[in-house]
């Protein structure tokens, strides 16, 4: 019947699949699996070779699916590059084997003129569980499993489980709340001071993001950064942090409390934006506080920094922005990359600071990092300092600035402003025992 056929591929269409699902779900004797297939690189094929190539790929995929899932399976095209296969069996192991075999077949090259394309495919698999379930529930479970398969790297099959549903439901709620939070201005900047190791004076401050969610309370970035990145809104958050923290530094300077240096974490995607330098120039009007970008993406230091990022880093230096390498000593940054990036500061990772008093190898590594930095004329900041003993040790080793809960935790704007005012002119007992002798 033409009413149930997809005209491009000759497979069943969405209407048929939904009606067949409803029929199967209403039959207490039926047992079936739902496989939701999606091509992994179809958009790229369409964009580079045109709709004609895309249509040919869909027709070939349809033929291959018929071979992989013979009658009595029902195969339908749901639209675009999405397909549904209804397998009238409920053996998860067998169906997973079928799906993996189909992935291999669908990944084989397809000729289009003189061009070979390799579409690839991912499968989400679910099974009928309760008699009388509606079509939306049945399709939704397969769709969630497909989402997980793609998140795990594509070109794979994933079976729906209650645990998967629980996790993805929480992630979806997090995504919705975060998008709304960014829109409603719920992202805040908190500040943690950096203390000059010899004098004990404030040498800088790091701007740290927090999300003050009405439902979740104050949320640390490690709990939502991955979601911001997957949603493509990390650059927007970075922009808000830059604007808010520079405005705060300017207000502090106007009140007579100049912050020597303001360090802001910047993502790799943000560094790749074409207008970042112009944005910095527009926002950084009060130059009494030195602006420093903390480069947090490990890909920035793998020795193969993109030309756009390299160009932007050079331009940022030209307009006066300092550069810092975060988490140094954890294996992310190479010497070659340091020569390429030419940072003004290295931040010794907190994992090294935590063990510096009890692990001789760790202390030697920190000593070598500080010595290397001195040769390259790079300042050294240690983060995660939690005890006076750690502070004295790092100062003795030659570390320039210290940051951590031993001095102060990250604080909201008003609390940090009070902290600065209260210790105006004060000096903390951080000076090294060697220098005091």
Structural commentary:
- Helix content is 45%, strand content 21%.
- The protein is built from 17 helices and 17 strands.
- β9 and β10 form a beta hairpin.
- The longest helix has 22 residues.
Brief summary:
With 437 residues, this protein is an alpha/beta fold. It is built from 17 helices and 17 strands.
Shape: elongated
The chain-level mean pLDDT equals: 88
Low-pLDDT segments: 432-437
Rg from alpha-carbon coordinates: 28 Å
Number of strands: 17
Q: Major sheet: order of its strands?
A: 8-9-11-12-13-14-15-16
Give a quick set of tags describing it.
437 residues, alpha/beta, 8-stranded mixed β-barrel, 5-stranded mixed β-sheet, 17 helices, disordered C terminus
Ordered list of secondary-structure elements with their pairings:
Layout: H1 14-25, E1 33-39, H2 42-49, H3 51-68, E2 74-79, E3 82-87, H4 92-106, E4 110-112, E5 115-117, E6 121-127, H5 135-151, E7 157-159, H6 162-183, E8 187-196, E9 202-213, E10 217-219, H7 225-231, H8 234-254, E11 261-266, H9 268-271, H10 276-283, E12 290-295, H11 307-318, E13 322-328, H12 335-341, E14 345-348, H13 350-354, H14 360-375, E15 379-383, H15 388-397, E16 401-403, E17 411-412, H16 413-422, H17 433-436
Parallel strand pairs: 6-7, 9-11, 11-12, 12-13, 13-14, 14-15, 15-16
Antiparallel strand pairs: 1-3, 1-6, 2-3, 4-5, 8-9, 8-16, 8-17, 9-10
Helix pairs in contact: 2-3, 3-4
């Amino acid at each position: 019947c033409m009413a149930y056929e997809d005209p491009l591929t000759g497979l069943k269409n969405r209407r048929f699949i939904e009606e067949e699902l409803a029929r199967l779900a209403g039959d207490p004797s039926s047992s079936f699996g739902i496989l939701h297939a999606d091509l992994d690189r179809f958009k790229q094929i369409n964009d580079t070779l045109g709709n004609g190539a895309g249509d040919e790929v869909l027709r070939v995929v349809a033929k291959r699916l018929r071979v992989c899932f013979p009658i009595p399976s029902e195969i339908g095209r749901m639209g675009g590059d999405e397909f549904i296969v209804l397998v009238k069996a409920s053996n998860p192991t067998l169906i997973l084997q079928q799906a993996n075999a189909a992935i291999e077949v669908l990944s084989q090259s397809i000729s289009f003129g003189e061009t070979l394309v390799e579409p690839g495919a991912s499968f989400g698999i679910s099974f009928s569980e309760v008699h009388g379930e509606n079509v939306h529930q049945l399709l939704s479970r397969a769709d969630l499993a497909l989402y997980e398969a793609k998140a795990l790297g594509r070109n794979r099959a994933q079976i729906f489980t209650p645990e998967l549903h629980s996790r993805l439901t929480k992630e979806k709620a997090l995504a919705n709340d975060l998008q709304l939070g960014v829109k409603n201005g719920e992202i805040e900047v908190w500040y943690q001071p950096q203390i000059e190791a010899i004098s004990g004076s404030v040498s800088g401050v790091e701007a740290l993001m927090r999300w003050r969610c009405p439902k979740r309370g104050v949320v640390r970035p490690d709990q939502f950064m991955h979601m911001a990145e997957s949603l493509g809104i990390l650059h927007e958050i970075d922009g808000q942090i830059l604007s808010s923290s520079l405005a705060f530094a300017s207000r502090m300077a106007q009140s007579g409390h100049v912050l020597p240096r303001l360090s802001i974490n910047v993502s790799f995607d943000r560094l790749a934006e074409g207008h970042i330098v112009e944005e910095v120039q527009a926002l950084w009007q009060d130059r009494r506080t030195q602006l420093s970008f903390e480069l947090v993406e490990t890909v920035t230091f793998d020795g193969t920094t993109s030309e756009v990022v390299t160009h932007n880093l050079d331009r940022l230096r030209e307009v006066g922005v300092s550069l810092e390498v975060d988490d140094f000593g954890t294996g992310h940054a190479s010497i070659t990359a340091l020569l390429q990036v030419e940072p003004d500061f290295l931040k010794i990772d907190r994992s090294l600071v935590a063990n510096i008093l009890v692990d001789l190898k760790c202390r030697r590594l920190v000593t070598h990092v500080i010595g290397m930095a001195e040769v390259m004329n790079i300042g050294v900041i240690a983060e995660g300092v939690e005890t006076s003993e750690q502070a004295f040790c790092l100062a003795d080793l030659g570390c320039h600035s210290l940051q951590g809960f031993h001095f102060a935790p990250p604080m909201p704007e008003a609390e940090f402003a009070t902290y600065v005012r209260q210790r105006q002119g004060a000096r903390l007992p951080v000076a090294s025992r060697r220098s005091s002798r």
